[in-house]
Amino acid sequence: MIEKNVCLKPYNTFGLGAQAKLMARVDSVSNLQEILADNSLHNEPRFILGGGSNILLTKDIDALVIKNEISGIELINETEDSFFVKSGAGIPWHELVMHCITNGYAGIENLSLIPGNVGAAPMQNIGAYGVELKDVFHVLEAVELATGNVRSFSASECEFGYRESVFKRKLKDEFVISSVTLRLNKQANLNTSYGAIDQELERLGISSPTIKDVSQAVIGIRQSKLPDPKVLGNSGSFFKNPVVQTVIYEELKTKYPEIPGYPAGENTKLAAGWLIEQCGWKGKVVGNTGSHGKQALVLVNYGNATGVEIFNLSEQIMKSVYDTFGVQLEREVNVY
Length: 336
Hints:
336 residues, alpha+beta, Uridine Diphospho-n-acetylenolpyruvylglucosamine Reductase, domain 2, Uridine Diphospho-n-acetylenolpyruvylglucosamine Reductase, domain 3, Uridine Diphospho-n-acetylenolpyruvylglucosamine Reductase, domain 1, 5-stranded antiparallel beta sheet, 4-stranded mixed beta sheet, 20 strands, globular
């Protein structure tokens, strides 16, 4: 069924009340193909919506919004070392993580509590606490909007980068991801050194952690720093951590000895939250929006913000960081 004039406030984690001209909810590939083949909708632009956790709506959507609700999680294969788990793109990401932990499938415990749906995970190459989706990715299936044909994409074809993939650049708005298959481990190879995971495990009195323990530690850390979108509208990290040449980092370090930096190949990754905080934005309220008091990287909607208001705040923050450090921040969220 095609719905008309739908308020998108419940469907984006910023809680922004943009209107969709049309909306179709799809729960299967065949359902999606039927919508794409409908001649009465042929001239309507398409807008793909998953969990709405990484978008900033600055205007109404004069298009057919396709709400991806394809579900289902199944173990499709296993080898001596690995489990191959296939998930529908409409499954909430954290639900998939919990399913895998319950069944002893290791590898994504560090990615616990990341908002959004499974379909967005490869688009963004989501990552946290030293793990990225590409580390466990096997293959995905996607439906081409122009033809309705289903195509498989390998890891190399997805062209994963830092919060990047081919679906955000070269193939943007050309495919709807329908399923993602992960290759997970039978033998856990825990990664607890990144961030404060080790300290959280120690606080919990856990010396020999399981994947469930690591997941709980990550959840505890995230809940202590990040606002719940159901309570305070936000999209998690609004900006990417900038990557600069190491020589530039060394120059910054002479002026700002406390500036954190992390190896990123031949370059150095800076902490966007630290840069923003040094510019005085952490906890600052600007109209109906602001930078969160516990994590400067998170921009929030205090109840009545518009997408334009949040976008304008991000512009001010980006200019402030550039004027102070000479570093150009880039938004992680997709702006519409």
